[in-house]
Specification:
This is DUF1996 domain-containing protein. The protein is mainly beta and 360 residues long. The chain has three helices and 18 strands. Strand 5 and strand 6 (103-105) form a beta hairpin. Bound molecules: 2-acetamido-2-deoxy-beta-D-glucopyranose (NAG) (2 copies).
Length: 360
């Protein structure tokens, strides 16, 4: 990677001054893909197949249904760098639609190294997960059984003004993550809520930011959103006051800020001659969304015992993929953790005539 660790640290500290130490914690760690499957235990429990395809990382308790229990006790391996994180995180997949109407799945590339973390450069599929806390005793870690959803799979247009979304894309214009120093979903030039409109030579990055306030009572809610909320100042940006910002009285408990960061390897699809003749861009989420506004993320908490709370409370603050007494594992071990796919179908590593679950 082009950045030396020192340069990268300086860049991140500059972009995110509140993470310069002094007790702030920002865990940042890679998780390999545990499965790609058309199931969704949160939104469509028990359904196999569910309406659209997902890519999933984390523990091997992932299943068509996941009871609201301590899944850290059900899983016995994880694809994540922190081996006590048996949570599951999942998002839509990305597909390329060719001029002839065929689809092919866009693979993911390991993320760049930061904070001396070799793990994220060696993951297979998957993405990077962040947990942010503004300091000791300032956030309450999730309780066993907790789950939530961010984003709306049916959204197809911008809502509100400015770039204050919980999901965004960044077009990598060069092969070396050029322009990557600015904090995600915060830069009105680099980041867009819709898919980039031109080919991105270094791939497309997705960021998905979860709410940071909780009602303090419910582990879930019927829409998987109502029990959590953004701070009073509105949806989070990673540099905003969201982590330290005041929570609404309805959701007074501050929870760690989770962010997912996915790098889609679009390089094999960058030939403009293969792009639509009407000038539109060719990528589509596995929901059938050609806009990108419907990007969404699911989360089921599964850290062992009090390990997440200990990380969030670490007195000196933690950066990256090592933190106090938290256990980590070799990437080869994480890459070996898998769950079998429940729905046997072609996921699009060759050409498909339609998206899995979608009409033509
Ligand atoms: C997944 O769920 C199915 C159906 O409820 C169950 O039969 C199976 O044992 C579960 N698998 C795992 C690994 O938990
Ligand atoms: C559709 O287009 C892609 C990309 O050009 C090509 O590889 C594929 O063979 C085509 N499929 C059909 C059915 O023509």
């Amino acid at each position: 990677m082009i950045f030396s660790t020192l340069v990268a640290l300086a860049a991140v500290a500059e972009a995110m001054p509140q993470f310069g130490g002094g007790g702030n914690t920002m865990l940042r760690f890679g998780c390999s893909q545990v499965v790609i499957d058309r199931i969704d235990p949160l939104v469509n429990p028990g359904q196999a197949p569910s309406p659209h395809m997902h890519q999933v990382v984390g523990g091997n308790a992932f299943n068509t249904s996941m009871a609201s229990t301590d899944i850290a006790k059900l899983a016995d391996c994880t694809t994540c760098g922190y081996s006590e994180d048996l949570s599951n995180y999942w998002t839509a997949n990305l597909y390329f639609k060719a001029r002839n109407g065929s689809y092919k799945r866009v693979p993911q590339i390991p993320n760049r190294e930061l904070f001396n973390d070799k793990y994220t450069t060696g993951t297979q599929g998957g993405f990077v997960v962040y947990y942010v806390s503004p300091g000791k005793s300032k956030v309450q870690a999730f309780k066993p059984g907790f789950r939530m959803l961010v984003g709306d799979a049916n959204k197809r247009a911008k809502e509100g003004s400015g770039l204050k979304s919980q999901t965004c894309f960044r077009c990598y214009t060069g092969p070396n993550f050029a322009g990557d120093n600015a904090a995600p979903c915060a830069d009105g030039k680099l980041d867009t809520e819709a898919f980039p409109t031109a080919p991105c030579p270094g791939g497309i990055r997705s960021n998905i930011l979860y709410p940071t306030c909780w009602d303090g009572k419910n582990l879930d809610s019927p829409d998987h959103k109502a029990h959590v909320a953004y701070p009073k100042a509105g949806p989070a940006t990673f540099t905003g006051s969201s982590v330290g910002g005041d929570c609404p009285s309805t959701h007074p408990v501050k929870i760690p800020q989770i962010m997912l960061e996915i790098v889609w390897d679009t390089r094999q699809f960058n030939n403009k001659a293969d792009w639509p003749t009407d000038g539109s861009q060719p990528f589509v989420l596995s929901t059938g969304d050609p806009t990108g506004y419907g990007q969404h993320g699911d989360y089921v908490f599964g850290w062992k015992d009090d390990s997440l709370q200990r990380a969030m409370d670490e007195a000196k603050g933690c950066m990256g993929a090592s933190c106090g007494g938290l256990k980590t594992q070799a990437v080869s071990v994480g890459n070996g953790c898998k769950v079998p796919s429940r729905v046997k179908e072609d996921i699009g590593d060759g050409w498909l005539s339609k998206l899995p679950g979608m009409e033509m």
